[in-house]
Amino acid sequence: MKFCTLGNLALLAGGRDVTPTAPKQRQALALMTLRAGQRVSMPTLIDEIWGSEPPRTATTALQTYVGKIRRIMATATDTSVKQVAAGRLTTDGNAYVLRVADDEWDKPRFEELTRLSRTALEQKDPITAELLLRQALRLWHGQPLGNVPTGRILTPYAQRFAEQHLSARISLVDIFLQMRRVQEAVQEARELVTDHPYNEHVHAQLMRGLYASGRRAAALQVYQQLRARMRDGLGISPSPTINTLHHVLLQDEPDEQFLLMAGTVS
Q1: Directed axis angle between helix 154-178 and helix 126-137, to 10°?
Q2: Any idea which residues the entry calls the DNA-binding region (predicted)?
Q3: pLDDT tens digits for the chain (266 residues)?
C-alpha cells in the first residue's frame, strides 16, 4: 500500500485510490498515518475529530470508523480484516497503531530527498542538488491535507508541511541563482511571490534574479510593492535584511561581495 500525505490524503493499493470517502474516516486515517508506528489514543482521536465537546457516541463512532478503514485495507490487499487488525492497524489498549514502512509513505521519502539535496549543495554540487530537489517536489499533489478536516492536532501538521514545501521551493530558486540560471529563478520566484505576498525571502530572491538578468528597475519595483503591501496590510515596514538588499541595488556600483553571496554576479 501507499500512504500519501503531501497534499490530499490518499491511500493507494495496486495503483488504485482506495482513500476513505467519509471526512471523519479520512481525519482518523490522517492522524494515525502521521503518527505511524506510535500509539494514538482514542481520546486523542476523539479530540481531533470532535474537539472539546464530543458526542456521547464518539467512542462507538470512532470504533466504527477504524473498522471501516480496516475493511478498506483488507479489500484493497485481498486479505482479511482480522489480518489487517493483527498486522497493519492494530489495537493497543485504548489506542490504535498504524504500521507504515518508510517506502510506503511519501513523507519520509520527501525528507530524505531534501536532506540529500542540502548535502549535495554543501558539497558544491548544485546539479545533483537540483535533481534531488525536483524529485522531492514531484511528490507533492495539492495543499497539505487538503481533503481532510483538520482539528486542533492535525492543523499544525498541515502548517508544517506547507512550510516544508515552501522551503524546498525556496531552495530550488537558490540553486538557480547559484547556477546563474536567472530566468528560471525569476519565473519560480514570481510564482512564490504570488503565493506568499508577505514573505520577504521570496521577494528578495525575485529582486536578486531580476537584477542578475539586467532588470534593476524591475527589482526595485518589487521592493516598493512589498513595502506598500506590508504597510497597508500589516502596518509594518520591511525588515533590515531586505532594506539592505534594496540599498545595495540602488548603488551605481553594487557591493560585489554582497551580490556574490546572493548568487547574482556572473
Answers
A1: 150
A2: 1-100
A3: 999 999 999 999 998 999 999 999 999 999 999 999 999 999 999 999 999 899 999 999 999 999 999 999 999 999 999 999 999 999 999 999 999 999 999 999 999 999 999 999 999 999 999 999 999 999 999 999 999 999 999 999 999 999 999 999 999 999 999 898 999 999 999 999 999 999 999 999 999 999 988 899 999 999 999 999 999 999 999 999 999 999 998 987 765 555 545 443 33
Axis-axis angle for helices 154-178, 23-34 (nearest 10): 60
pTM of the entire structure? Answer: 0.89
Measured CA to CA in angstroms, residue 180 lies from 132, 174, 175, 198 at distances of 19, 10, 9, 26
- Amino acid residing at 168: A
Q: Is domain 180-266 annotated with CATH 1.25.40.10?
A: yes
User: What is the domain partition of the chain in residue ranges?
Assistant: 2-103, 180-266
CATH number for the region 2-103 comes to 1.10.10.10
Q: How far apart are CA 151 and CA 149, in angstroms?
A: 7
Separation of alpha carbons 168 and 111, rounded Å: 10
